[in-house]
Amino acid sequence: MNQNLKKEIRKKIIKLRDSLSEKERIAKSAEIQNKLFALPEFVNAKTIMFFYTYGSEVMTEQMIRGALKSGKKIILPKVDKNKKELILAEIKNVDTDLVKGTYGIMEPKDENLHIVKPNEIDFVVSPGVAFDSQCNRLGYGGGYYDNLFKKTSKHIPKIAIAYDCQILPSIPVFPFDEPVTKIITEAKIYGRK
Q: What is the DSSP string of 4-63?
């Protein structure tokens, strides 16, 4: 029953997110970036995992470039479909280190892959489809980030970035669903109560 509800929510929120114009997405993403880069946890983090934008998600390319420029060690995920997990790899250059991978998402190239263990990361920027104000997260249904969060240190900030239209009063949660620490939207920052 809850799985069907999750599917319906995904469909509804993606449609809502897709309806934002590119101009709106650029403006909202810039607002989100300002809030993210001002977070003390982000400022103090040395090794940061980002995701590369897929479809109408918050635009992360400028964030990745900005974080690289400020001297952060940047990690991006590469999907291993067979193992149902994310391979984490360091990138040093957005223009030369990425290639279109699984699901059509830009990910680190196979050649000279600098693999990083989940426990080496001290800050995660997480995607997601829908969230609630309690920081519960509904992803695309693959479980990739839930699995990753279980392998990272419990104490590291797991910060989701999303548009405010992706925040719902509540979302269905299963025991294997991992919440995030905070959610940053263009309108506000949600933290766990």
A: HHHHHHHHHHHHHHHTS-HHHHHHHHHHHHHHHHH-HHHHH-SEEE-----TTSPP-HHH
